[in-house]
UniProtKB/TrEMBL annotation:
Keywords: Coiled coil, Transport. This is Efflux RND transporter periplasmic adaptor subunit. Residues 240-271 form a coiled coil. Pfam families: BSH_RND, RND-MFP_C. It comes from the Bacteria. It comes from Autumnicola lenta. Residues 214-330 form the Multidrug resistance protein MdtA-like barrel-sandwich hybrid domain. Residues 422-478 form the Multidrug resistance protein MdtA-like C-terminal permuted SH3 domain. Belongs to the membrane fusion protein (MFP) (TC 8.A.1) family. It is found in: Cell envelope. InterPro entries: MdtA-like_BSH, MdtA-like_C, MFP_Cation_Efflux, RND_pump_MFP.
Amino acid sequence: MKYLYIICISLFLFSCGNNEEEDHEHDAEGNHLSSEVPAISKTIWTDQTELFVEFPALVEGRTSKFAAHFTVLDKHQPVRNGSVTVSLIKGDSGIRHTVESPSSPGIFSPALQPKESGTYDLVFELKTSEYSDRIVIEDVQVYASAAEASENVAETEDGGISFLKEQAWKIDFQTAPVTKGEVYDIVNTSGVWQAAPGTYKSLAAGANGMVNFVAENLTEGSEVKRGQLLMNLSSEGLSSNNIQAEIAQAKARYEQAKAEYERKKELYEDRIVPKAEFEKVESDFRVAEANYRALASNYGAGGKQIRAPFDGFIKSISTSNGDYVEQGANLVSIGTDQSRLLKTQLSASHNPSKEAIASVWYRNGDGNWSEVEDGSIVSVGKEVEDSKPMIPVYIKVNDVVEVPEGSFTEVQIALGQTETGIVVPEAALLEDYGNYSVIVQTGGESFERRPVKIGKRNGKNAQVLNGLEAGDVVVTTGNYQVKMTSMSGQTPGHGHEH
């Protein structure tokens, strides 16, 4: 029994010794950084990269190993290939070390052994197949001894939310800097999608005849290509209004007028016939030629041809296969999604005008807000009626809008004078019963939930009246997961998968 007790105690101590210690820093291989000197962590953002690096305080004559976490800010993914060079520079001299690949995705582990104490610049140079970046941490101190480092470097105690890089890299995660931007008074309304002028065309019958569909599956919504043959109009078998007979007659008149014109032209040049007579013959010839070419245009073996004028889709069909139609009758309409017209309405109390409308946002097919480009306000109504107390506003949208014509959408219109203020993306906001907060990244793996007061909103950005400053970094995608981590009451161990 005593022997069994000793074995249990030994196993317990062994298992404790193998637990990851939450309060210790680790290098890129998951080893504990030296406890003889305090650990330092730095987080630096560039336009392309986030660097979160952990390393023991630099001491003269001692090798310090870095755990440098590199994140590509676009899509917030780890750097998976490339090299990193770390340099310790003072003036024109220094030391450097290059590692040619990450020890695990996103994490590079170079090492440096400073030769002299002093103040240096610590420089990280990242080179990948996609891009390069250079990150400088200024005024990094190299201490003369471990004791001096321990005296001067305070251990940081972060009481915030711990969310490891490996966690962020595995989920849909994104951060964005807090900036100053322009904010407006926003009017929430709705709009309806209409076809913009010039984006559709109705094709009419150029002659009397029987409709013969040539294109297979010619239905509303079908895609068509420029010049594609859609249908023929055949007058074969008709005793009257027969286009074939009319073309034959027009051709005969044209050829007769042409021969007479050429004969009189020679006589006129020889001054045998007067000018007035020649001009009369020439006029008859030009009329006969125009009439023949008009009748014969787009005429083929199957009859008068109806072709698509541009790439697009069948907007509507006004006839059926085999129908008899008269010249000028509408046959089919071709449309394109290259441009749409968004009709919305504003109350006259807003005193809207083209000059007063600063910007417009609408819900796109994905449910996200899209901003209409500048100069797209086509017109604003000038008057209202008792039966129509709203003023119509027409907005041209050049983006492809993949929603049916006549569909409604949410619209936000920015009016009045602009103000400059702190703004964050709408996606960064967390709401609890009318109160708002954001997740602020205070370090590479450190976050805090911060309450904010919201001002004007436009669906894409929100004005922050207090709680944030320009330069803060907030989580815009994945903030809910960080929030849930904070609510769990557990801080994950620093179990880097290196």
